[in-house]
Design goal:
Layout: H1 6-11, H2 21-29, H3 41-44, H4 56-66, H5 107-112, E1 126-127, E2 130-131, E3 145-149, E4 154-156, E5 163-164, E6 173-175, E7 179-190, E8 198-205, E9 209-222, E10 229-236, E11 241-242, E12 251-264, E13 266-274, E14 282-284, E15 289-297
Length: 307
């Protein structure tokens, strides 16, 4: 007995023929038998068997054996094929279909609590006119100041020639091109008792071009710890300007304040000149200072809102 294909089996029963026992056996063996040909669970997991039929139960076993089950975030589906995802990492190149925000647990509430889109100049302030939106750093600083303050007495020469008022460590003020500066200072001077006048001025070097320098000076002369006499002088430019009448007072205080404008940058150095050598020990005393504060371009007229 053996299994035969349909053409051979049909030939056994052609008109006028009488099938024999073996042909009937071949017919029976070539048909599916519900009792004998059902695949067991073991048969369903054996990929070498090709003559058994599968029931729903054995189909499931066959799929569990041979199908490749994908994992999500390294999570394997449960016995019902479900996956519970609590944390999703990575990115997706595309998502098809539509997902409503209320279908994602907590998403709608999170979105409702988010801040509105930030807009530069509307709900994001600027710093010195620069938006803080974007990458990189913002440079935040106040007005540029140049300050020299003596921390010890500086010895002045006993002569009647121009000399630097401050020591080399604090006598060169580098000004920037196309700027306007407020400047002020105070000189605390002790000098000999030989009668003399006192003048102050400035030396511009390294290309500094000052288009205007206007300031007011007040000078006080007195005996040490004595009552002083004073005078005021309005000064234009950098040249030495005599500030007082001849005096033999041994202390001199000079206060000055004004505005300077320059078109090219360079170095400005303060100077003093006595009309005669004062004699004795002459000093620029500790606490004397000079300050330059940049306020804008060389043509600035207002800073801030000025009507």
């Amino acid at each position: 007995m053996a299994t035969k294909n349909r053409g051979i089996l049909k030939s056994f029963f052609e008109t006028g023929k009488r099938p024999i026992q073996e042909e009937f056996e071949n017919l029976i063996d070539s048909q599916l038998n519900i009792e004998e040909d059902k695949a067991s669970e073991a048969d369903a997991q054996n990929d070498q068997i090709d003559n058994k039929y599968l029931t729903p139960k054995t189909v499931k076993k066959s799929i569990e054996t041979f199908a490749t089950v994908k994992k999500v975030n390294n999570i394997t589906p449960d016995s019902n094929g479900n996956i519970v995802v609590t944390n999703v990492s990575g990115t997706a190149s595309s998502i098809t279909g539509t997902i409503s925000k209320n279908q994602v647990t907590g998403l709608e509430n999170d979105l409702n609590n988010k801040q509105n889109v930030l807009v530069s100049g509307t709900n994001v302030k600027t710093i010195n006119g620069q938006s803080i939106v974007g990458s990189g750093d913002l440079s935040v600083s106040g007005p540029v100041k140049l300050i020299g303050v003596l921390s010890s007495n500086f010895t002045l020469s006993n002569s009647n020639t121009s000399q630097n008022a401050f020591p080399p460590s604090s006598d060169a003020y580098t000004l920037t091109a196309n700027k306007t500066y407020f400047f002020k200072g105070k000189f605390l001077i002790t000098n000999g008792s030989i009668s003399h006048t006192t003048a102050m001025g400035w030396v511009a070097t390294t290309g500094l071009n000052i288009t205007s320098m206007e300031y007011v000076v007040q000078i006080f002369s007195s005996a040490l710890n004595g009552i002083s006499t004073s005078s005021s002088v309005q000064v234009s430019g950098v040249a030495n300007k005599v500030l007082n009448a001849t005096s033999s007072a041994v202390t001199t205080t000079i206060e000055f304040e004004g505005v300077l404008r320059c078109t090219t940058g360079g170095v400005l150095t303060p100077q003093l000149a006595f009309s005669a050598a004062p004699g004795g020990t002459n000093q620029m005393k500790v606490g004397s200072f000079i300050e330059f504060t940049e306020i804008g371009s060389d043509t600035v007229q207002t800073v801030g809102t000025v009507n």
